TrEMBL record, chain A:
<protein>
    <submittedName>
        <fullName>Putative tricarboxylic transport membrane protein</fullName>
    </submittedName>
</protein>
<feature type="transmembrane region" description="Helical">
    <location>
        <begin position="356"/>
        <end position="383"/>
    </location>
</feature>
<keyword id="KW-1133">Transmembrane helix</keyword>
<feature type="transmembrane region" description="Helical">
    <location>
        <begin position="171"/>
        <end position="188"/>
    </location>
</feature>
<feature type="transmembrane region" description="Helical">
    <location>
        <begin position="110"/>
        <end position="136"/>
    </location>
</feature>
<keyword id="KW-0472">Membrane</keyword>
<feature type="transmembrane region" description="Helical">
    <location>
        <begin position="435"/>
        <end position="452"/>
    </location>
</feature>
<dbReference type="Pfam" id="PF01970">
    <property type="entry name" value="TctA"/>
</dbReference>
<feature type="domain" description="DUF112">
    <location>
        <begin position="21"/>
        <end position="440"/>
    </location>
</feature>
TrEMBL record, chain B:
<feature type="transmembrane region" description="Helical">
    <location>
        <begin position="41"/>
        <end position="59"/>
    </location>
</feature>
<dbReference type="InterPro" id="IPR009936">
    <property type="entry name" value="DUF1468"/>
</dbReference>
<keyword id="KW-0472">Membrane</keyword>
<keyword id="KW-1133">Transmembrane helix</keyword>
<keyword id="KW-0812">Transmembrane</keyword>
<protein>
    <submittedName>
        <fullName>Tripartite tricarboxylate transporter TctB family protein</fullName>
    </submittedName>
</protein>
<dbReference type="Pfam" id="PF07331">
    <property type="entry name" value="TctB"/>
</dbReference>
<feature type="transmembrane region" description="Helical">
    <location>
        <begin position="130"/>
        <end position="151"/>
    </location>
</feature>
<feature type="transmembrane region" description="Helical">
    <location>
        <begin position="85"/>
        <end position="118"/>
    </location>
</feature>
Length: 504, 154
């Protein structure tokens, strides 16, 4: 524990340069705005910012990306409370209590409470990351290729089962990600697979894919659906943003509960912030002495999901930084960023690149502090910026996406890849296919394929290696359990519904 | 609902064609050797699996849309919420032509043109406002990418 703190202190010294502080502050502001805009979520925010990190040091680049990630979690609540339009999926629950508070003239208080709860949730999640990540990393170095392959398979199967209501669609998205990742050099055999043009020898560029999918794809959907924000001109006094002592006492336990739920759910692959917010909300409603107030502006129903939402971000970074296994689309993009900076994600990351990992955690802590301040002091600035940007959002996003794609290799090939994946992203959105499993598979599949091959070689051609050791067998059973649950989920739900209808 | 079904069928057709072509291409690659599998193992199996899943999903989607069409009956979509297909096609055309124009050597000039056209023809802002947004966004991109990050974007 003391070791973690000393690492963190050194990292704070490294990160706290004027340029880095300005970068983290701006990243938080951009993230807040992106999060507040319906249609652009955390993945879009990180994807759009990725080209900006090309010339940066890994600590600055990762601080920028994690700052944007955290900022989007704060931003989603703005439009949810002010105009009942959640900026992203986790903010749906925020709108359920925040908007009624706004209608009752307590909008300022709702924004203040949600900002404080978000801050507490974020800090709680970070504390868990700071103290538990090194412990997990210590044990993770004993895992071999079979355990890693099974862990990755577990992550992928969980995201297929948990992402959305249709596992077949999630499976298709995952398989396409796997297939796309096979294009380019195969480092085990030395063969080049499906490289029809020289630019594909190194594979399809991950950054070009995510910019297209989350940037251009979202723009096309926004244009088709005529998405527009009518921000109005809400006026608040500064004092309204700061809740009184009685209110703070009232929301303290719900905030803590939300923080625990958010961190726990954030660690699980596939679950993520949205599920965490719903579980936190339901928990508070169950525990409340006045559940009838829920839906009418109950502050505990606002605070707990907001804390859960922000605690899920550091929670999801725990498996990413310790095992190199992302649990969501957002963290899969972060994994792509780690690889882009030349780092080697996995159990050795916290040993080989400790300075960068702790620097990123320090950056995230500073971002959380900045975000608390900016989300209380700069609400009018955000409202005006949203009003200004919204009118020209699509044109601006397209411009940044295409220039970002050009910056990857200073050629138009990656720009075309971005355009193609923009259309694919649009089709996925329109047909309701989850993008998270696709991105996760695209990033994880090359690593998983290598681990699988190494495992089979270790087993001298036998697949029995996956049931030989107790730990490997446990992971194999877990994977089978998740797959069986996925297959049985729909028939069980349909049987239960049928019985319920018959009883009614 | 119609757009969604068209989008899904188009999407599945693209995926199935992509998966089939890679699966066929992987026949030239080694599938397995004595101790492990070769570079053709994953693309062939995954490609075949995608084609099967796409066919299955297409059948499910068609059956579902038939059922929904029967249930929809006299429901009519409101004019205001109808999809902006014209806007979508214009946006796609502007992006494709803009990217094609980048082959002439400049990046920022087509970017300016794209922002201006998207703002003017798709978002229907006044021409002066569109020109202003185009100029300021292009200038911001130049400052961020070319001056701050020192990337050759001109």
């Amino acid at each position: 524990m003391l070791d973690s703190l000393s690492h963190l202190m050194v990292a704070f010294n490294q990160v706290a340069t004027p340029e880095n502080l300005l970068l983290i502050f701006v990243a938080g502001l951009i993230g807040t705005l992106v999060g507040a805009l319906p249609g652009l979520g955390p993945s879009a925010g990180i994807a759009l910012m990725m080209p900006l990190t090309f010339g940066m040091s890994p600590i600055s680049g990762l601080s920028l990306l994690t700052g944007v990630y955290m900022g989007t979690m704060y931003g989603g609540r703005l439009t949810a409370i002010l105009i009942n339009t959640p900026g992203d999926a986790p903010a749906i629950v925020t709108a359920m209590e925040g908007y009624p508070m706004m209608q009752r003239g307590k909008g300022g208080q709702a924004l203040g409470i949600s900002a404080i709860a978000s801050f507490v949730g974020g800090i709680f999640g970070l504390l868990m990351l700071i103290f538990f990540a090194p412990i997990i990393a210590e044990y993770a170095i004993f895992l071999g290729p079979p355990e890693y392959f099974m862990l990755m398979l577990l992550g992928l199967s969980m995201i297929i089962v948990l992402a959305g209501s249709d596992p077949l669609k999630a499976l298709i998205a995952t398989l396409v990600g796997v297939l796309l990742s096979t294009i380019g050099s195969d480092y085990v055999s030395g063969n080049v697979r499906f490289a029809v043009v020289p630019e594909l020898i190194e594979g399809v560029d991950f950054v070009a894919v995510i910019i297209g999918l989350f940037g251009i794809g979202e723009v096309l959907v926004n244009v088709e659906e005529r998405i527009r924000l009518n921000m109005g001109k809400p006026k608040f006094k500064f004092s309204e943003f700061i809740p009184g002592l009685a209110e703070l006492r009232h929301i303290s336990l719900p905030t803590l509960r939300g923080s625990v739920i958010g961190t726990g759910i954030g660690v699980l692959p596939g679950a993520g912030a949205t599920i965490a917010t719903f579980i936190a909300y339901i928990t508070e409603k169950k525990l409340s002495k006045q559940p009838e107030n829920f839906g009418k502006g109950a502050s505990e129903g606002l605070a707990s999901p907001e804390a859960a939402n922000n605690a899920a971000v550091p929670g999801s970074l725990i498996p990413l930084l310790t095992l190199g296994i992302p649990g969501s689309g957002g963290t899969a993009i972060m994994l792509g960023a780690l690889i882009m900076f030349g780092l080697n994600p996995g159990p050795m990351l916290m040993i080989q690149s400790a300075d960068i990992v702790w620097g990123t955690i320090a950056g995230l802590t500073i971002a959380n502090l900045f975000l608390l301040g900016s989300n209380i002091l700069l609400i009018p600035v955000f409202v005006n910026a949203l009003r200004l940007i919204q009118n020209h959002l699509n044109a601006i996003v397209v411009a940044f996406c295409l220039v970002g794609a050009f910056s990857i290799n200073y050629g138009t090939f990656d720009v075309w890849v971005t355009v193609v994946f923009g259309v694919i992203g649009y089709l996925m959105k329109r047909a309701n296919y989850p993008t998270g499993p696709f991105i996760l598979a695209l990033v994880l599949a090359p690593l998983a394929e290598n681990y699988l091959r190494q495992s089979i070689m270790l087993g001298q051609g036998s697949w029995g290696i996956f049931v030989q050791k107790p730990l490997t067998m446990t992971f194999t059973i877990l994977v089978l359990g998740v797959v069986l649950f996925g297959l049985a989920k729909a028939p069980i739900a349909s049987y239960v519904n049928k019985r319920r209808n018959q009883a009614a | 609902m119609g757009t969604m079904k068209t989008a899904e069928i188009t999407f599945l057709a693209i995926l199935a064609a992509f998966a089939a072509s890679l699966a066929i291409g992987s026949l030239d690659l080694k599938y397995a050797d004595e101790f492990s599998f070769g570079p053709g193992f994953v693309p062939l199996n995954v490609g075949v699996l995608i084609v099967i899943c796409c066919a299955l999903q297409a059948l499910r989607s068609l059956a579902k849309s038939r059922k929904e069409a029967a249930e929809a009956g006299d429901r009519q979509e409101h004019a205001d919420t109808s999809p902006n297909i014209a806007g979508l096609l214009i946006t796609t055309a502007i992006i494709v032509l803009g990217v094609a124009a980048m082959a002439l050597g400049s990046v920022l000039a087509p970017i300016f043109a794209m922002i201006f056209l998207l703002s003017w023809r798709v978002a229907h802002h006044p021409i002066t406002s569109s020109l202003f947004v185009g100029a300021t966004t292009t200038a911001a991109i130049y400052v961020i990418f070319a001056i701050w990050l020192n990337l050759p974007v001109l």
